[in-house]
Request: fold
Amino acid sequence: MTASNKAIDNKKNYYKELHKKNRIRDTKSDIVFDCISMFFLVLAVVIVAYPLIYVVSSSLSSTDAVMAGRVWLLPVEFSLSAYETTFKYDSIMTGYLNSIIYTISGTLVSLFLTTLCAYCLAKKDFYGRKTVGFLVLFTMLFNAGLVPNYLLINNTLNWGNTIWALIVPNAMSAWHVILMRSYFQNSIPEDLFEASDIDGCSVYRQLVSIALPLSGPILAVIALYTAVGIWNGYFDALIYINDKTMFPLQLVLRNILILNSMDMTTSVDLREMASRQGMYNLLKYAVIVVSSLPLLIMYPFVQKYFVKGIMVGSVKG
Amino acid sequence: MTDNRRYPITTGMRTQPTLSKRLRKSIPYYVLVALPLIYLLLFKYYPMLGVQIAFRDFKVRGGIWQSPWVGFEHFSVFFQSPTSWMIISNTLILSLYYLAASFPIPIVLAICLNECRSSKFRKFTQMITYMPYFISTVVLVSMIIQFTDISTGLFNQILTSFGGQAVNFMGTAGYFRTLYVWTGVWQTMGYSAIVYLAALTGVPVELYEAAKVDGASKFRRITNIDIPYIAPTIITLFILNTGSILSIGFEKIYLMQNSINTPVSEVISTYVYKIGVLQFNYSYSTAVGLFNSVVNLIMILIVNTVSDRIGKVSVL
Reply:
């Protein structure tokens, strides 16, 4: 983001100068246009931010206030009871731990395979580069579909209920390979490789001592995309994991937030039902906040890398 | 005569190394690429062989190689059943609706951001609109369920406070598509806008200058400079989007499904999952999935060819 913002700022400053020099004023229609575009932006911010604020505020309010609909923007009758209950939920904590393990190991496997493949595809003296490149690209166009993959992993490899089913089958995304290859090709000067070639440096050494130290940004980008993908995904776990102690966080959340929502109706006493339902309702808001916490904390720091990643990708298009 | 055929002698002209030399030089690359290649062959290409069970009657004992051939039987069963047209049309309607809503909005957002004069507000807007992209599908869907709750949900509280009637959004099939599409737009608009914003920063300042001198209004500058300039980006993304028109995301739809909205929310991906993984109807499910993949492949090739011919933009 910094790069693009800088570019825009430079342009804007340039305009200011131009305006001063040439005394070009905005016409009335331009001012109207500015107002409209400003209005759109404010609208976008409100629409996106309000539900998020509402969730956080509700989770920090009392049961009564949420049930009576008195929470509009800020917490009403501040209370942390929902969070206390959340942290007592064993399955959430196990899910948290599992998700952390899956995310870290999955990201490492993914980075390893992606780097190797992208590096080879980036080097012109690799005989067979076009064939491998086509094999990678073709996976973007056609995939076998759910069942053949499922049969391979569940029946042939027998990876059901193992961590491998979650971290290996989707480890190398064609899109990431292409992103990284174009980074190797465009952002690392060819001369470096040529010079080291003349000095008798091996290909492995070139990868470890030249390419890798210079590709921090792209490694960060791909690590982040992969990590967020694994952290947020639930589908692979849904089909391959039955053992509850191995559930990643998202699957636990699904059970609490989406499937169990009907459990409350079994209660007979209406008043008790209301209070339980109220607590459950509140609990959901707290669970949402707790589960999104790692990403929310990371968000300000990693934001610029994500943007960078998209920009690297847009170079090709 | 022979002089014409001879290559001009220039310095630095290298002869093509022989094949064995090139192979020998590439050995380290083969070592490096071995693992990724095994990965590709095992997890991407081996399942493609498994696709043959779409034409077989899969038996666990026979596996994918020995089960008896049945030809196109599964396909004809699928296309003759009334459900097939329901799920195909559901899939198409949902993706086209989603494409129509989610495609233009990020472009508008990016243009507005590009015109925004205060760099602080621009960064702030980007940061906020980008945030929902990180929310997981499970959390997003549970937020939808919470917000649309008939008694305590935010939407209904807003409705009733304006004197309206509370609506059971999740319990009404008619609201499913709207909820699906617009929450999707909510989640991804900031993220999608970044690509366009990056493209917009590449517009040469001279173009604006010239337009300004000629008295073009801001609106004209956008329609005549900005949009043509980012057109290749727009087309590229359009090609990629149409390529996946039948494989609309499983995760969100599956979570949003309930017994009431299945007539509109059952799409190919959820159907394949239910038939294949839950009901063990492997062959039939593979056939449906194969149909989906083939249509996707054809779509992306068509759109790519068309845009290549007309706009000289090609992804492949």
About this structure: Chain B has one domain: 74-311.
